[in-house]
Every structure is written in structure tokens, then in C-alpha cells.
Design brief:
single chain, alpha/beta, TIM Barrel, Rossmann fold, FAD/NAD(P)-binding domain, 3 domains, 8-stranded parallel beta barrel, 5-stranded parallel β-sheet, 23 helices, 27 strands, 32% helix, globular
């Protein structure tokens, strides 16, 4: 490992980075009042502790009040940010990690209707579809004050003891001047390329004058917008060369593509089922032509690809951002020759979909991310009182319970009714695009096997089976079964989405899918039906389709539905299903009208979440110490206490995941982690 390309140091000017791995700038949406307080700080410190060379904070910190923080961005225009950043930087430095921050004016990539209610800006009044705002064309006085705002913000970052800054120029204000798609000006900031980059060069010059030559200044920039209306590859290279020639920039962070729509965004930041590292060669070409330090991040989720990127000379620093959201200890595990123990990023993009909906970043299968104040990333504290713990179910919640309990030193036995682990994830992975989700199961199984968890597969555990083990704790992780009882009449005539996904029911030539959940099962089943070639109509009572699915993950489904001419009806409910000869007659109502419509079809598929498989839980409940109860107050405060409600009990009893109620993978895993880490 001494010769591992990823573990070699890298120097920019005076700044030495101890290895070649970094997290690129991203906004986890942990800020409080625009400031990086404890939650924000501990998130970055954890990655520093894990051995990363550079953590790039913010994505991005906004330099002006008329750049409303669409993603709960940090406020770089506030003086009070300095002590908070200084604390973050100092603590990361304690672990040998360098810290930079990305600064920006969001331009049109935000909304006017919050914060200070100021109009958003762009080079020209061209609307961004994603954020929907109609921007004001920047005037001369806007340009002058924003140039100063960049300089002032940079000074604050230097005062905070940070190691450098990165200017953001893709999809934001600066590059709105570069792109023919967004710059329609006829003044000195429009027209030819020299005019279009004039504003950015003024910003760079102002920043450099403010911070001096001994402070690192880089730029994350789009060098090819990859569409006819935008910056071409040739023009992008020219922009790069002009910026490098100023000798006022120390590194380039290369982006390819545009981000003004969800579909375009997924090409820049690929999601599950899309190729890995799609722009690596492009970034390498920029490095070759400029002979300048190049950083890059775009779905580089695995160590092998990162290692190749450095070894082949394509990159100087590799951004593994989503990978470090899943596992902050990647570098530590590389050094310790434990790469096989890295918790994999499965590409679910749960993290980003939440951000773009105004929610905090969470990893689909690492609940500790963003909760570092209360939840450990590694279970390394042994219980003082090892116990025998029986878990029923080997889906994600059951395996997480087994992993955590065994890491705590308990004797763990798992009963699973099927012949393999995975639960509902085995259904998810029947879609080729989502096959990487099995990493959630594989990683936990490997951890459980190493810690000698005992598994009994093909065992539909009864009450007697469980009690024969004389357990101290029983955890019910039996999941749920499809719920189709959301129509007034005729539900027995319908099948469910699991039937379609599993292939246990033949797909008919004409199908109505009733999605009264708005999550992945409805989309996955719909895609299978559409690809089968059926005439598919989707009905949902929602005011827009699939509200539980983020914009990025919705993209491939939308593509299929458009290409296969799927008919989607919103604001409609299926009221009744009746037989008519060998067909089904469907009665359709609406919350907004008393009108009843009818439609004939060959098959009705219903998606309405799951019903808990909880029979065993209730059979065991009365003989438990806690009668199945959970002290929520102690649970959420991270000092979980086991309750004694029945002094004559024989064991503690808990249920987790869909065995409680229909939720998602993250909720199921989080249930188990925060209960079991205290057992």
C-alpha cells in the first residue's frame, strides 16, 4: 500500500494534501441560520477523522443576500460565520485534513419567494426550469456589488483559517454569463467569449487582491455544457485556458453538462443504473491540455475507479462525495488494508433527492450520517452485559439489528423464512437499474458472518421456536405484506405491485395501476408493465405523480413512461372494481368532484404500501418485560432506556422497520441502529 496512488501526497503551492481523496463541495443542508454549527461541523470532522485529505465544505456558501439559500446554504456574507468555520477548520486540521469552502452567487438557481424576498439574478432574464424563477437581468450596479461580495466573502474564509476557497461556476451566476443559452446581453458582458467571461475575470481578480497570493483559490467550472444551446467543448476549453492564463487560480474542478432540469442534472451527477465516472476521461483531457491541477467528482463511488483516476494521470484529486456520505472511513480502511469492509455507496441518491426537496442529507443505509452528535458510524463499544438476542427477519432492519448487536458483543441468532437474506430489497434488485441496492444486504451479511451471527434460513419461526432459544431480547423484523385494501369494493379482483415485480403474476395486455402510495413500488411495477408492452394507465389521487420519489430518481421512469406512451391520471381514485365478462370494470372517483367515471381493463394492480407482519410480535408481547413499548423520549435523546412494564416478563421485545408500519429502507435501518446500539 506504500505505493498506492491514492495514498500519495499532493502539493498545491504551499498546501500539502496527505492523500488523493476528497469530498467535493456539497450542501448537506445542516446549516442553522446559515451557520455551520455543531451538526454541520461534526459531519465534516467525522470525514477528517476517517482520513480524507480535503473536505470541501458548502455547496455553495452564498456571497450575497440576493442569492437566497435554496439548499439551506451557508451565508458567506455574514461576519458571524467566521468563528463557526474556524472551529470546524481547527478540528479537521487536528486529524490532518485540509478544509476549503465553495462560494457562489446562485443566480437563477434559487427562488425569490423566501429569505429576504429579493429578485433573483442572471446574466439575462432566462428562466431555469428546475427552480422556476424568472430572473432579473443583472445591472451594472448588481455586477459591481457582487464582485465586492465575492472578495469580502473570501476574506472571511481566510480569516476563519481555511486552507482555500473554490469558486462555483456551473449552473450558477458566474457561468450564466459564459453560456449562450443564458447570456443574451449586448453590452460589454455579452456577445463574444471575451465579453462573456469578463465578469468572472473581474471576480477572480477581486478575490485574489483580497486574499493575497498565499491563499489557495480554485474554481469548479463547466467546461462543456453538452447541449446545442450551451457552451461547447471547444469553447469550454478556451474558457479554461483563459482562466488558467490569469495565474490567479490554483486548481480546476471540472464539470461536464448542465443542471437546469432534473434530466440534465442526472447526466452531471449520475444516479443508480447509470455508468460510473462518465466524465473522467473528459476531466483527464482537460488536465492533459492545460497541465494544471485538476479535481473531479462524478459518480466515482468505488476505490478501484478512484485509484485508476490517479494512476492513469487523469486526476490529481478524486472527489468521492457520495461514497463518503455512506462511509466516512474510506481512507482509514484503505490504509488498514480493509477495503472489503467499506460500506458501499449503492447509488440510491437518497442524499441528493432529499436536498433538492429542501430536506437534510441522509444516506439510505448509513443513518449515522448527519447524526454524528448522537449516532456512531462504527460500533466499537462492547456491552457490559452480553445477552442472547433473537431476531426474526433478515431484511435490512433485521440484518442491521444483527450487525449492531453482534458488534456490541451479544450472542445473536436470526430466523429468516426465505432461503436468502434481503427481504424487500430482493424485489428492488429485480430491476437491473437498481441491482446495486443489494450492497445494503451484502455488506451487512459480511459483517454478521465475521462476528459469528447464527442464521436459520428457510425457517418460518413460531413462538415456540423463538422461546426455545431462551432469549434475553427479541427483535421482530418481519417486514410487511402488500396492502390492497384501499378500494371500497373488489380488491380481491386486483393484484399488487409485488406480484408484478416478482413475476408471480402474468401481465395482461391492458393494465390499470392504482398508485395510492407514490413511492418506488408503484414506479417499478409500472416500468415493468410498460416495458412488457401493455397499454398502461396509471391512476393516482395525488396532485402530482410519485410524490415520494425525488426529481433525480424519477428521471429514468419518466423517460420510460414517455417512450411507452403511458397514460398518467392525477387527482383520481379507484372506488370499485367489478367483473364484466372476462374484463374488469373500474369505477373512478375524485376528491375534487362527485363525478364517477368508468373504465374497462384486463388487469388492475394496486400499490398502497404494506401491512405489518406482526402476528408473532403480538403472540410474544404479553410475556415481555416492556410489553413491546419503547421509551421514545430516551430513544430520540440517545440515552435509550429499556422499560419494565411487566415484572413477570421473560425477555424484552421490540419490532422494527415495516413490521411497525410501512416506511422506507432508511427508516427500517435507523429503527434498528438506535435501539440496538444501546442494548
Amino acid at each position: 500500500m506504500e505505493n498506492d496512488p491514492l495514498l500519495q501526497s499532493y502539493k498545491i503551492k504551499h498546501l500539502e494534501l496527505k492523500n488523493r481523496l476528497m469530498t467535493s463541495a456539497h450542501e448537506p443542508s445542516y446549516a442553522e441560520e446559515g451557520l455551520p454549527k455543531d451538526k454541520y461541523r461534526l459531519y465534516h470532522v467525522e470525514r477528517a477523522k476517517g482520513g480524507i485529505a480535503l473536505t470541501m465544505t458548502a455547496g455553495s456558501a452564498v456571497v450575497s443576500p440576493d442569492s437566497p439559500p435554496a439548499y439551506n446554504n451557508l451565508h458567506a456574507y455574514k461576519d458571524e460565520i467566521v468563528p463557526w468555520l474556524k472551529k470546524l477548520t481547527t478540528q479537521c486540521h487536528d486529524y490532518g485534513a485540509k478544509v476549503m469552502i465553495q462560494i457562489t452567487h446562485l443566480g437563477r438557481r434559487t427562488n425569490w419567494n423566501h429569505s429576504d424576498w429579493l429578485p433573483v439574478l442572471s446574466a439575462s432574464p432566462v428562466r431555469e426550469p428546475a427552480h422556476r424563477s424568472f430572473p432579473k437581468e443583472a445591472e451594472d450596479w448588481d455586477i459591481e456589488r457582487i464582485i465586492k461580495d465575492y472578495a469580502d466573502a473570501s476574506e472571511r474564509m481566510k480569516e476563519a483559517g481555511m486552507d482555500g476557497i473554490e469558486i462555483e461556476a456551473y449552473g450558477h451566476f458566474l457561468d450564466s454569463f459564459w453560456s449562450p443559452a443564458t447570456n443574451k446581453r449586448t453590452d460589454v458582458f455579452g456577445g463574444n467569449l471575451n465579453n462573456r467571461i469578463n465578469f468572472s475575470l473581474k471576480v477572480i481578480d477581486s478575490i485574489r487582491k483580497a486574499v493575497g497570493n498565499d491563499f489557495i483559490v480554485g474554481i469548479r467550472l463547466v467546461a462543456d455544457e453538452d447541449w446545442e444551446a450551451g457552451i461547447s467543448k471547444e469553447e469550454g476549453l478556451e474558457i479554461v485556458k483563459k482562466i488558467v492564463s490569469t495565474k490567479k487560480i490554483d486548481f480546476l474542478n471540472i464539470i461536464r453538462g448542465h443542471i437546469d432540469t432534473d434530466a440534465a442534472l442526472t447526466k452531471v451527477i449520475p444516479i443508480q443504473g447509470m455508468p460510473s465516472a462518465p466524465h473522467l476521461d473528459f476531466a483527464g483531457e482537460i488536465r492533459k491540455q492545460t497541465k494544471f491541477p485538476v479535481f473531479h467528482a462524478s459518480k466515482i463511488n468505488d476505490v478501484a475507479t478512484a485509484r485508476h483516476a490517479v494512476a492513469s494521470g487523469k486526476l490529481d484529486m478524486v472527489g468521492m462525495t457520495r461514497a463518503h456520505i455512506a462511509d466516512p472511513y474510506i481512507v482509514k480502511k484503505i490504509i488498514e488494508k480493509k477495503e472489503e469492509e467499506i460500506r458501499p455507496c449503492v447509488g440510491a441518491t437518497y442524499c441528493l433527492d432529499r436536498i433538492y426537496e429542501g430536506k437534510e442529507t441522509l444516506c439510505i443505509h448509513n443513518p449515522a450520517t448527519g447524526r454524528e452528535r448522537f449516532i456512531p458510524h462504527e460500533i466499537n463499544i462492547q456491552s457490559n452485559h452480553p445477552r442472547k438476542i433473537v431476531i426474526i427477519g433478515a431484511g435490512p432492519s433485521g440484518l442491521e439489528a444483527a450487525r449492531v448487536c453482534s458488534a456490541r458483543g451479544h450472542n445473536v441468532i436470526v430466523f429468516e423464512a426465505s432461503n436468502n437474506p434481503g427481504g424487500q430489497i430482493n424485489l428492488i434488485t429485480r430491476s437491473p437499474r437498481r441491482k446495486d441496492m443489494i450492497g445494503i444486504i451484502d455488506w451487512r451479511m459480511e459483517q454478521c458472518i465475521k462476528s459469528k451471527v447464527i442464521f436459520h434460513f428457510n425457517t418460518f419461526a413460531s413462538k415456540d421456536d423463538v422461546l426455545s432459544e431462551n432469549p434475553d431480547v427479541i427483535i421482530i423484523a418481519t417486514g410487511g405484506t402488500p396492502n390492497i385494501l384501499n378500494v371500497e369494493e373488489g380488491s380481491e379482483l386486483a393484484c399488487n405491485t409485488w406480484d408484478i415485480i416478482s413475476g408471480s403474476v402474468n401481465i395482461e395486455d391492458e393494465v390499470i395501476l392504482y398508485d395510492d402510495n407514490g413511492a418506488y413500488p408503484g414506479l417499478q411495477a409500472s416500468e415493468i408493465i410498460a416495458n412488457f408492452g401493455s397499454n398502461l394507465k396509471i391512476i393516482t389521487p395525488e396532485r402530482f405523480f410519485a410524490p415520494e420519489i425525488g426529481g433525480m430518481n424519477y428521471v429514468p421512469y419518466a423517460k420510460t413512461f414517455i417512450e411507452k406512451n403511458v397514460n398518467i391520471l392525477i387527482n383520481k381514485r379507484i372506488k370499485k372494481i367489478n367483473k364484466r365478462d372476462n374484463r374488469l370494470l373500474v369505477s373512478i372517483s375524485s376528491d375534487y368532484s362527485n363525478k364517477i367515471e368508468t373504465a374497462e381493463t384486463s388487469q388492475v394492480v394496486i400499490e398502497h404500501g404494506t401491512i405489518p407482519v406482526d402476528e408473532l410480535y403480538f403472540e410474544l408481547k404479553n410475556n415481555s418485560y416492556n410489553l413491546g413499548s419503547v421509551d421514545y423520549n430516551s430513544l430520540i435523546k440517545d440515552n435509550f432506556n429499556e422499560k419494565i412494564e411487566n415484572s413477570k416478563g421473560s425477555y424484552y421485545l421490540y419490532r422494527v422497520g415495516d413490521a411497525v408500519s410501512s416506511r422506507n429502507i432508511h427508516a427500517a435501518i435507523y429503527d434498528s441502529l438506535r435501539i440496538c446500539k444501546n442494548l
